[in-house]
């Protein structure tokens, strides 16, 4: 058996994982986008809720991915009270992002859960985002967007060993 813990899974691995779960999805390939502002022109082509993902940590080195609607505001001074962090949160280091999620800055995604085989990250989905039937995120690289049904996103996370928190984390 291959040890995938040291080699991050790719977009192809992610899609194969969804296929194995019987989860329908659609992936749209595009130029790499690093910010929400750069991705705005894709909205007409890709329906559904578009995500912004924040990789944060508390003082006890507990890591979280906060997945919210692209234009939502997260108050980093108070969100720790909502998500159960031990302290105010700060952005996680790129090295930990790569180690835990298998992605670099600019490509943070809820789908990185597939690479967090050690359960080092808590995934938090904003309630407002979860009102959308279809949710969009990068499939481990920022040159594509994968659309998945809300309930299938939850099923995907559970299948990776993560029980997501669905909380109101935006203003």
Descriptive notes:
This protein is of the alpha/beta class and about 170 residues long. About 20% of the residues lie in helices and about 25% in strands. The protein has five helices and eight strands. The chain has helices spanning about 10-20, 35-40, 80-85, 95-100, 150-160; strands at about 25-30, 50-55, 65-70, 90, 120-125, 135, 145-150, 165. Strands 1, 2, 3, 4, 5, 6, 7 and 8 form an eight-stranded mixed β-sheet that branches. A hairpin with a 6-residue loop joins strand 6 (about 135) and strand 7. It is globular and about 40 Å long. Mean pLDDT is about 90; it is low at about 1-5.
Rg is: 15 Å
Q: Helix content range of the residues, please? A: 10-25%
On the 0 to 100 scale, the average pLDDT is 91
The secondary structure category is alpha/beta
Low-confidence stretches are 1-5
What percent of residues are in strands?
A: 15-25%
Q: How can the largest sheet be summarized? A: 8 strands, mixed
Overall spatial form: globular
Strand tally is: 8
Counted by DSSP, the helix tally is 5
Q: What's the helix-strand series? A: HEHEEHEHEEEHE
Gap between N and C termini: 45 Å
Quick structural overview:
This protein is α/β, with parallel strands linked by helices.
């Amino acid at each position: 058996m291959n040890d995938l813990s040291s080699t991050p899974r790719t977009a192809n691995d992610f899609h194969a994982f969804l296929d194995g779960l019987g989860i329908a999805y659609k992936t749209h390939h595009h130029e790499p986008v690093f910010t929400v502002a750069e991705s705005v022109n894709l909205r007409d082509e890709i329906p559904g809720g578009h995500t912004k993902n924040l990789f944060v940590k508390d003082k006890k080195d507990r890591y979280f991915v906060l997945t919210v609607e692209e234009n939502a505001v997260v108050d980093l001074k108070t969100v720790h009270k909502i998500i159960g962090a031990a302290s105010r949160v700060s952005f996680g280091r790129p090295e930990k992002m790569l180690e835990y999620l298998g992605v670099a800055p600019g490509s943070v995604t809820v789908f990185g859960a597939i690479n967090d085989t050690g359960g080092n990250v808590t995934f938090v989905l904003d309630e407002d985002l979860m009102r959308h039937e279809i949710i969009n995120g990068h499939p481990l690289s920022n040159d594509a967007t994968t659309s998945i049904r809300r309930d299938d996103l939850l099923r995907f996370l559970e299948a990776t060993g993560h029980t997501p928190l669905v909380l109101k984390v935006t203003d």
